[in-house]
Amino acid sequence: MGSQQGNRLRVVVIGGGTGLSVLLRGLKHAPVHITAIVTVADDGGSSGRLREELDMPPPGDIRNVLTALADTEPLMEKVMQYRFSTGTGLAGHNLGNLLLAAMNEITGDFVTAVKKLSDVLAVRGEVLPASTQSLRLMAEMEDGSIIAGESQIPLTGKQIKRVFLDPEDAVPLSEALLAIEEADAILIGPGSLYTSILPNLLVRGLFAAVKNSTAPKMYICNVMTQPGETDGFSASKHVEVLYDHVGGPFLDTVIVNSAAIPDKTLEKYAEKGAAPVACDVKRLRQLGLHIVAKPLVAFEEGYLRHDATAVSKQVVSLIKRRRRTQKIEKE
């Protein structure tokens, strides 16, 4: 099992997007050392423009995670997330993305840039890109068509058959592999299944390290389906898609929300084509998973989010229980 930093459990969290940032806001207050491994397949908005113009990995998901883990004043968070609305060339750009771009140019290395900005923001834990290469996410749809670009995939109105990376032989970051090797637990999600989570696991060396790790591997399932990605998906369908993409089972535990969602909220989401992810316990058991079904949602500005504190408590409790069991087995 993983090494300790003092008495702290080492937790590796893999993903991207809003879901991951929400979770990390709660997890950073738990007695754990966090390493966040973040997707670099984004190609939309400010991130996509910087990626094309400066030939650098897209900074958007990294920026969100740095901000979530930062131990700074609320004003600094507003600065990091500030998006320019006017200005030739500036409009649409996010200031945090520009800071990462500047740090990348100054240091000449994206990983160093992330580490330096982490120091400036007093980040709790480490933030690492899954790869130092700019990866393009590709999707093969059920009708056989191929869609290029993470931002374009959910917009097609077609069902996704599979996603894959270009280049397919992307090299994982060595620090990310070491963090996985030393982990006491590996958390996957929450986040967009095809466009935030799978781009990390499709980095072959990275997934090999996850599979080889003896740490418990927990999947935090999304609360709601995502239009254009997971329409009609149950919790088990999310897991099956992960398994189909990486060649077989690798998870121990699935964490799902069991709280009822108010009708008003359901109506709001239904207008956008989203519905609650059904917790199909029987099928999850057939997949050999330990199921943690608890009320795990909070409401943030009218939107459903994972209750970061509640999820963090579940995660820490699961890791400690696992360690106690192992200790008893050894004795």
From TrEMBL:
Keywords: Cytoplasm. The keyword Transmembrane helix does not apply. InterPro entries: CofD, CofD-like_dom_sf, Gluconeogen_factor. GO terms for molecular function: LPPG:FO 2-phospho-L-lactate transferase activity. It is found in: Cytoplasm. The keyword Electron transport does not apply. CDD domains: YvcK_like. Signal peptide: none annotated. SUPFAM superfamilies: CofD-like. One of its GO terms (biological process) is regulation of cell shape. One of its GO terms (cellular component) is cytoplasm. Belongs to the gluconeogenesis factor family. Required for morphogenesis under gluconeogenic growth conditions. This is Gluconeogenesis factor. The lineage of its organism: Bacteria, Bacillati, Bacillota, Bacilli, Bacillales.
